[in-house]
Amino acid sequence: MWNPAVETMPREQLRELQLQRLKETVRRAYEKVPFYREKFKASGFEPGDIKSLDDLAHLPFTFKDDLRNNYPFGLFAAPLKEIVRIHASSGTTGKPTVVGYTREDIATWAEVVARTLGSVNTTPDDVVQVAYGYGLFTGGLGLHYGAEKLGATVIPISGGNTKRQIMLMQDFGTTVLCCTPSYALYIAELLRESGIPRESLRLRAGLFGAEPWSENMRREIEEKLKIDAIDIYGLSEIIGPGVASECLCKNGLHICEDHFIPEIIDPATGKVLPPGEQGELVFTTITKQGFPVIRYRTRDISRLIDEPCPCGRTHIRMARVTGRTDDMLIIRGVNVFPTQIESVLLSIGQTEPHYLLVVDREKSLDTLEVWVEVSEALFRDEVKGLEELERRIHDEIESVLGISVKVKLVEPKTIQRSEGKAKRVWDKRDLLKS
What we know:
By secondary structure, the protein is of the alpha/beta class. The protein contains 13 helices and 21 strands. The chain has helices at 4-7, 11-32, 34-42, 64-69, 103-118, 138-150, 162-172, 181-193, 215-225, 338-348, 376-379, 383-401, 428-433; strands at 83-88, 98-102, 127-130, 153-155, 176-179, 205-208, 228-235, 240-246, 253-255, 260-265, 279-285, 296-302, 304-305, 317-318, 323-324, 329-331, 334-336, 355-362, 365-373, 406-410, 425-427. The strands form five sheets. The protein has a nine-stranded mixed sheet. The chain has a four-stranded antiparallel sheet with strand order 10-11-12-15. Helix 8 (181-193) links the parallel strand 5 (176-179) and strand 6. The longest helix is centred in the first third of the chain and has 22 residues, at 11-32.
């Protein structure tokens, strides 16, 4: 545990700290950011109206479009001369979302990521290989600064060049790997194909995030790489990685509540839901100086867990993200998340961990086809065996989703590999709209 005094703070004391910081943040946003001042006034709200943490629910939400509409620096609460770092989203849809950090914000970021690394008992004796992308994406530099603050040795290799990744793991003695879970599986696959014995690596733990992944995928990674696979969570709009992380108990991600206040809402009504109920995750930053964000709707689907954790940390936990409201597929009125299908495939265990959901429309009816890679040996096996596997996958997926699907078994290497976030969906309906 990196910071026991804070991470095990009594709940009552933590809530008092949150309220104090929330009041300061709301006042700062009101005074420094015209967008928030106008939005608060339109809601009939003033900073002095915050009397308790429950009053947070009366504040308006912030949406990703608000960030884009105020591009590039309209939501900054500090002058540009005080902003020492700028990150931005990829901008694949419209304007990129831009976030700014003061020197104090960078220190906060390093602190919360150090806690994330501390969740797998990282010490200055560890060698941390950061295979998240560097640059405007927050993943690489976030893990980098946190590892340095903790005192570990950092390998800033970024993503890609997987053979070199494995070589450096061997030569530099990497003990902790940081990357997306899909890339971890790709590393495991190449390791096996290269005939490199797992015993030649010192790897003991991995911190995986930036995309939804299932419990079955965790088991797959842990079995193939012989490590503890830990789920981490963050998003650039809030700070980047470091917002929340599992501990070795692996029963939910501890949120750094002294810096971020979480809520779960009904995505349709905006109503705040109690712990245990699933809905959309909303965050309010309460220590950020350069870019404070009030009630940001993440679109991530999760739930809050308020039961005590055996590790001793007192901060509330969030359940593993099961998908996003804007990644969610609606097939003939049914909500479908890729992770549901991934769990089925990995539970069957006779396929490779690579799949693609192909969504199309035939005669005004949505269709879903699941492409699944099988091993070289199985693909060359008799047709009867492949037909039986295809039927089993088909029946299991239909049982879980409650809608009809098509299943297509494909040769190894058919589905494009990713060194970042895996592309799980090919929605041809989008092509029909364009």
